[in-house]
C-alpha cells in the first residue's frame, strides 16, 4: 500500500470519531477508566460509521468505499455499502476486518466478549432507513428504535460488565427516548432526506400534513404534535432513570449524563416553544449540568 493510501483510512477514522462531540450525550467522558473510554469509542466509531453509510454522509474521497471493497460504480448504493459493511463486521468475529474502525473494534469485542447481535441490529436499522421512510404508529416507531438505538445502551452495559435483565429494560427505555428526542430535533433535516419519524396516526390526530413540516417555522398544530412526542420521550427517560441509581462510581456519572442529555434536549425543545423547524434546539452546558444533578439525586 502506498503512503497516500495509508493516510486516508486514518483521516476517515478520525473524522468519524470527531463527531462524538456533537452528540446529545457524553460518549466517553474523561472521568471514565481509560480501558472503558477506549472500548466505548470503538463502539461509537462503529455506530457512527454505520449511520453515516445509511445517511450518505461518508467522508469525500471514497476511502470507505475502497476499504469495504465496493466498486466505485456501486458506491452510491447504500444497501450495497451496508451489505459490505456487514460482511466486514463478521470478520471482526472470525478473521481480520478491512476497515480501520472495525479493526479498532475487534480488541473490544474480544476483551468484553461482545456478540454480533447489537451490531447487526444497528446495520438492520440503517437498511430499514433505505426502505421505510414513514411510520404509521408509535409501536412501529418503537420497533425501529429497538434496532436503531437500544443496541447502543446494551453495548455500554456489556462493555462495563453490568448487564442484567432489569438494567437492559431500563437502558432500552432511555435509548428509545434519546432516539425520539433526536428525531424531534431533526424533523426538518429528516424531511430533507424524505424521512418522517413522527407517527402518521399522531400527525392525523393533531391535523398535521407533511407540507406543514416543510415550512420555516412551525404552526400551532406542529408544535402541539412535537410537545406530545416530547412528553412521550420524557416519560421514557423517567422510566429508565432508575438505571442510574442501580450502578455506582464513574459508571453512574456516565449513565446520568445519558439521561441528562435527553432531558436537557427536551428542555431546549420546550424553550423553543416546540418549534423545531428552523433547526435543532440544542441545550446549553448549564442546563445539561442542572439535569445531571437532578438525575444523580434521583429526582425528576
- Rg from C-alpha positions? 19 Å
**What share of the residues lie within helices?**
55-70%
Shape: globular
Strand content: under 5%
Q: What about the largest sheet?
A: none
The first-to-last residue Cα distance is 55 Å
Would you list the SSEs in sequence order as H and E? HHHHHHHHHHHHHHH
Number of strand elements: 0
What does this structure look like?
This protein has 300 residues and is an all-alpha fold. The chain has helices at residues 3-17, 34-55, 63-67, 78-94, 100-112, 117-131, 138-148, 150-159, 165-185, 187-192, 200-205, 220-240, 242-245, 249-271, 285-296. Helix 4 (78-94) packs across helix 5, helix 9 (165-185) runs antiparallel to helix 12 and helix 9 (165-185) packs parallel to helix 14 (249-271). It is globular. 41% of the residues are buried.
List the helices and strands and how they pair.
Elements: H1 3-17, H2 34-55, H3 63-67, H4 78-94, H5 100-112, H6 117-131, H7 138-148, H8 150-159, H9 165-185, H10 187-192, H11 200-205, H12 220-240, H13 242-245, H14 249-271, H15 285-296
Helix pairs in contact: 2-4, 2-5, 2-6, 2-8, 4-5, 4-6, 6-7, 6-8, 7-9, 8-9, 9-12, 9-14, 12-14, 14-15
Name a few traits of the molecule.
300 residues, mainly alpha, disordered N terminus, globular
Briefly summarize what is shown.
The chain is built from 15 helices and no strands. The chain is mainly alpha-helical.
Amino acid at each position: 500500500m502506498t503512503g497516500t493510501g495509508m493516510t486516508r483510512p486514518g483521516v476517515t477514522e478520525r473524522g468519524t470519531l470527531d463527531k462524538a462531540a456533537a452528540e446529545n450525550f457524553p460518549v466517553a467522558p474523561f472521568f471514565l477508566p481509560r480501558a472503558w473510554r477506549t472500548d466505548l469509542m470503538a463502539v461509537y466509531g462503529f455506530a457512527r460509521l454505520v449511520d453515516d453509510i445509511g445517511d450518505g454522509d461518508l467522508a469525500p474521497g471514497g476511502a470507505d468505499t475502497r476499504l469495504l471493497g465496493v466498486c466505485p460504480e456501486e458506491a452510491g448504493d447504500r444497501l450495497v455499502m451496508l451489505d459490505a459493511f456487514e460482511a466486514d463486521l463478521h470478520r471482526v468475529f472470525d478473521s481480520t476486518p478491512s476497515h480501520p474502525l472495525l479493526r479498532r473494534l475487534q480488541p473490544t469485542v474480544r476483551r468484553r466478549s461482545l456478540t454480533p447481535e447489537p451490531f447487526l441490529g444497528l446495520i438492520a436499522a440503517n437498511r430499514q432507513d433505505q426502505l421505510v421512510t414513514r411510520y404509521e404508529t408509535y409501536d412501529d416507531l418503537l420497533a425501529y428504535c429497538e434496532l436503531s438505538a437500544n443496541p447502543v445502551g446494551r453495548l455500554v452495559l456489556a462493555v462495563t460488565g453490568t448487564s442484567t435483565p432489569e438494567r437492559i429494560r431500563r437502558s432500552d427505555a432511555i435509548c428509545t427516548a434519546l432516539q425520539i428526542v433526536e428525531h424531534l430535533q431533526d424533523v426538518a433535516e429528516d424531511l430533507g432526506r424524505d424521512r418522517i419519524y413522527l407517527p402518521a396516526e399522531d400527525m392525523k390526530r393533531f391535523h398535521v400534513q407533511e407540507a406543514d413540516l416543510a415550512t420555516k417555522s412551525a404552526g400551532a398544530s406542529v408544535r402541539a404534535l412535537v410537545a406530545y412526542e416530547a412528553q412521550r420521550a420524557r416519560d421514557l427517560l423517567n422510566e429508565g432513570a432508575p438505571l442510574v441509581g442501580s450502578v455506582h462510581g464513574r459508571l453512574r456519572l456516565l449513565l446520568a449524563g445519558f439521561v441528562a442529555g435527553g432531558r436537557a434536549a427536551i428542555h431546549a425543545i420546550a424553550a423553543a416553544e416546540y418549534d423545531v423547524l428552523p433547526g435543532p434546539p440544542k441545550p446549553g452546558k448549564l442546563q445539561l449540568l442542572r439535569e445531571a444533578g437532578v438525575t444523580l439525586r434521583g429526582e425528576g
